[in-house]
Amino acid sequence: MAIISEMEEAKPMVPFTASFDPSNPLGFLEKALDFIGKESNFLKKDTAEKEISAAVKAAKDRLREAEKKKLEKVSVKPMEVEKPKKETLKPTESMEVEKPNKESLALSEPMELEKPKEEKKESATIVPNKGNGLDFEKYSWGQNLQEVTINVPVPAGTKSRFVTCEIKKNRIKIGFKGQEPIIDGEFFHPVKPDDCFWNIEDQKMIAVLLTKQDQMEWWKYCVKGEPEIDTQKVEPESSKLGDLDPETRATVEKMMFDQRQKQMGLPTSDEMEKQDMLKKFMAQNPNMDFSNAKFN
């Protein structure tokens, strides 16, 4: 009989089928407690209320901890990503685009861009060699106001039939047939191809003579890509100047002076002469009003 009574007391397990409605959590809790009351003696315990309260409190604590973790994750992203974006998009854009654009265009750009450019130009230029050009590993070049010379050392015994030398108005190509050219590039300024020559000196040097088209300006480089020389330090040899007649020598010196003035952004000798004439004219006519006058 005892076995039978125990079998009667052992009731089959009834599944809990209540669905959870997020809008009515208390209704779900009531159904859960009703199920527990029907299927067990838990609610009859003296400590049932305390245990349920402790369970609810623990559930609230877990919920708060979960919310804190979510807030920490969210707060990290806005602080590092979202907020900086808002600050950079709103405040910094207004400060970098509206205000600094006016100030930077007026002040910072000339001071930070133009001056460094001038310094770079000065530091990039090189003192020319004795021939007013530069010496490189495979060739060298020099110049005077009328001509440019290029010298390319070659193996002893080299003959002209092994050499290729093409001289065009704006370009030159020198090398050995069937090999990569030694020089291949554009001139600083055009030349007169019909007045240019080349030959092999002592079967060990390719000598090229180029006639400048503009014979009033010094070249900063021979072939594009070379370092630039400081043309302000270019001077004709004194002996050559001494061989010239006074009129020609004066013309050469004038061209040299004008070239230096142009490079420094200063008026040439002709412009200075015109300014002097204008000053004298204005001094001779003090009663004339030159405030609205335009001078060419």
From TrEMBL:
<dbReference type="InterPro" id="IPR037898">
    <property type="entry name" value="NudC_fam"/>
</dbReference>
<dbReference type="Pfam" id="PF04969">
    <property type="entry name" value="CS"/>
</dbReference>
<dbReference type="InterPro" id="IPR008978">
    <property type="entry name" value="HSP20-like_chaperone"/>
</dbReference>
<feature type="compositionally biased region" description="Basic and acidic residues">
    <location>
        <begin position="77"/>
        <end position="90"/>
    </location>
</feature>
<feature type="compositionally biased region" description="Basic and acidic residues">
    <location>
        <begin position="112"/>
        <end position="123"/>
    </location>
</feature>
<feature type="domain" description="CS">
    <location>
        <begin position="134"/>
        <end position="223"/>
    </location>
</feature>
<dbReference type="InterPro" id="IPR007052">
    <property type="entry name" value="CS_dom"/>
</dbReference>
<feature type="region of interest" description="Disordered">
    <location>
        <begin position="77"/>
        <end position="127"/>
    </location>
</feature>
<protein>
    <submittedName>
        <fullName>Protein BOBBER 2-like</fullName>
    </submittedName>
</protein>
